[in-house]
């Protein structure tokens, strides 16, 4: 009589995915491995990002200009990498710094007062994975500029991997700039 043979369960098969640490990723960046592409390191895996389109670029430029008008050029960065932990480095559209950073490096969580993502085509990623990663890392405030709904989602007070304070500000309404008594508008 024939008997059934058992095949190893998929969990017993070693992973064939290449996983990287933040240190390894940063070495690859320094060596120019990603000069012709935009990538992020998420939980040790490389994720390729699409280049921004015109509406994204327009909103990013206006948001950056308005933040620089309030804070000065030394405290606002555009298209910069943020090291969140030993296996995640995310690129953000705009970062507001606690104080100027002079070194040529990616930013650390300790450098950042606010991260802004412009979500023209990336709303699910920005409101989902990126929000959770920024909250878990302790980024004090996170804005998602939602062009599809004409609002800015404002997340603040990171607590246990989520934000305790969540609000929505319509385009054109005053938006409080963290660490100041000033506001800007996004549209």
Q: What would CATH call the class?
A: Alpha Beta
Instruction: Enumerate the spans where pLDDT stays under 50 for 5 or more consecutive residues.
Output: none
Q: Looking across the biggest beta sheet, what order are the strands in? A: 5-3-4-6-7-8-9
Going by CATH, what is the homologous superfamily?
tt1808, chain A
**Bulk shape:** globular
Number of domains: 1
Question: How many alpha or pi helices?
Answer: 3
CATH architecture: Alpha-Beta Complex
- E-strand count: 11
First-last Cα distance? 74 Å
What is CATH's topology name?
tt1808, chain A
Major sheet summary line: 7 strands, mixed
Helix content: 10-25%
Q: Rg from C-alpha positions?
A: 19 Å
Elements, N to C (H/E): HEEHEEEEHEEEEE
What structural category do the secondary elements indicate? alpha+beta
Strand coverage percent: 35-45%
Estimate the mean pLDDT confidence: 92
Short description:
This protein is of the alpha+beta class. It has three helices and eleven strands, in the order αββαββββαβββββ.
């Amino acid at each position: 009589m024939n008997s059934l043979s058992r095949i190893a369960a998929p969990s017993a098969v070693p992973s064939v995915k290449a996983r990287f640490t933040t240190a390894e990723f940063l070495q690859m960046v320094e060596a120019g491995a990603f000069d012709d592409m935009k990538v992020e390191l998420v939980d040790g895996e490389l994720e390729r990002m699409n280049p921004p389109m015109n509406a994204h670029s327009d909103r990013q430029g206006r948001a950056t200009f308005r933040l620089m008008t309030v804070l000065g050029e030394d405290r606002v960065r555009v298209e910069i990498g943020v090291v969140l932990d030993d296996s995640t480095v995310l690129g953000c559209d705009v970062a507001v710094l606690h104080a100027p950073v002079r070194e040529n490096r990616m930013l650390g969580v300790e450098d950042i007062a606010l991260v802004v993502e412009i979500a023209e085509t990336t709303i699910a990623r920005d409101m989902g994975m990126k929000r959770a990663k920024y909250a878990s890392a302790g980024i004090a405030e996170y804005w998602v500029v939602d062009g599809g709904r004409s609002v800015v989602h404002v997340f603040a007070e990171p607590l246990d991997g989520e934000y305790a304070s969540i609000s929505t500000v319509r385009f054109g309404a005053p938006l409080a700039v963290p660490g100041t008594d000033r506001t800007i508008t996004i549209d």
